[in-house]
Design brief:
Oligomer: single chain
Order of helices and strands: HHHHH
Distance between the termini: 23 Å
Structural class: mainly alpha
Shape: elongated
Number of helices: 5
Strand content: under 5%
Radius of gyration: 20 Å
C-alpha cells in the first residue's frame, strides 16, 4: 500500500508542496512501522473481511433494486443504472452505507 522504493516515496512526497522531498529518519521509522502493520497477516485478514462485507452489500443492493423482465430474466442493461447509483454512493454517499457496514463489522469482531 505504501510506495515500495525510496524513489517512489520521494515522488509521492514531491507531489505535495508542503512536505520536503527527503525522508527524515523519524519519517523513515514511521513509514517502516506502518508498512509492517499494513502487511501483517492480521491486517490482511481484516482488509479481506471488510472487502467481502462491502461486496456483499453491493450485491444485496443490486438484487434489491434490479427488476427482472417479463420472462424472469435480468439483463445486464438492468444492472447498469443500479451499479452506477451504488458507485456514486460508494464515492460520495453521506452517510456511506459501505463504510458503515465495514465499521459495524469491525466493532463486532
Amino acid at each position: 500500500m505504501l510506495p515500495p522504493t525510496l524513489q517512489d516515496e520521494i515522488t509521492v512526497l514531491a507531489q505535495d508542496s508542503l512536505v520536503p522531498d527527503t525522508v527524515s529518519p523519524d519519517l523513515r521509522r514511521l513509514l517502516d512501522e506502518t508498512s509492517d502493520i499494513l502487511e501483517s497477516p492480521a491486517a490482511m485478514a481484516v482488509f479481506h473481511t471488510l472487502i467481502d462485507r462491502s461486496v456483499e452489500e453491493f450485491v444485496r443492493a443490486l438484487e434489491a433494486e434490479t427488476k427482472a423482465s417479463r420472462d424472469g430474466v435480468v439483463r445486464l442493461a438492468n444492472y447498469l443504472p443500479v451499479a452506477t447509483k451504488e458507485a456514486e454512493k460508494i464515492a460520495h454517499g453521506v452517510p456511506n452505507q459501505y463504510f458503515q457496514v465495514s465499521y459495524l463489522f469491525s466493532l463486532w469482531v
